Amino acid sequence: MACELAGDHYLDRPSTCRNCGDGFVFTAQQQREAYEVRKAYIWQQRVLCAPCWQQRVHLVGELKRIRSRWARERASVKRDPQALRQWRDVLAQLPRYGLREDRAQRAMVDRLWATAARIEV
Ligand SMILES: [Zn+2]
Questions:
Q1: Contact criterion met (CB below 8 Å) for 9 and 28
Q2: d(CA 33, ligand 1 centre) in Å
Q3: In three state form, how does the secondary structure of the chain look?
Q4: Rounded to the nearest whole angstrom, what is the distance from the C-alpha of residue 61 to the centroid of ligand 1?
Q5: Of 10, 17, 27, 115, which has the highest C-beta tally within 10 A?
Q6: Ligand 1 centroid, distance to 76 Cα (angstroms)
Q7: Is 60 exceeded by the pLDDT of residue 42?
Q8: Which residue from 61, 111, 59 is spatially nearest to 84, judged by alpha carbons?
Q9: How many whole angstroms separate alpha carbon 57 and alpha carbon 95?
Q10: Is 83 exposed, middle or buried (CB count within 10 Å of its CB: 0-12, 13-18, 19+)?
């Protein structure tokens, strides 16, 4: 559906959640908030219902946290199968929430996790 702008007004846009299939409305107020306050791209369509959007925000935050830990203490993450498994889970879930799958990163984390899990045993 094209972005519906009528002068200064945003119109409520009914949609179907890409993740869970629930119907939801991307309200005029939410659009204003997204486009004018958070400066999202105007052509960015909301494709997720509110709970799935919250989950997406949560997952993106988790990924950021894990990756910043990875940047700071690579050696300790490599020996931490739990952290690596969590990293894998987050990466596996993200594509369902409208984010591009990062195959290279997934392959790297898979390898690290396999190695760490072996050491653990
Ligand atoms: Zn949903």
A1: yes
A2: 20
A3: CCCCEECCEECCEEEECCCCCCEEEECHHHHHHHHHHCCCCCCCCCCCCHHHHHHHHHHHHHHHHHHHHHHHCHHHHHCCHHHHHHHHHHHHHHHHHCCCCCHHHHHHHHHHHHHHHHHHC
A4: 18
A5: 10
A6: 35
A7: no
A8: 111
A9: 13
A10: buried
E-strand ranges in the chain read 5-6, 9-10, 13-16, 23-26
> Measured in angstroms, how far is the CA atom of residue 120 from the centroid of ligand 1?
37
Residue type, 9: H
Structure tokens at 105: 């990163």
Amino acid (one-letter) located at 4: E
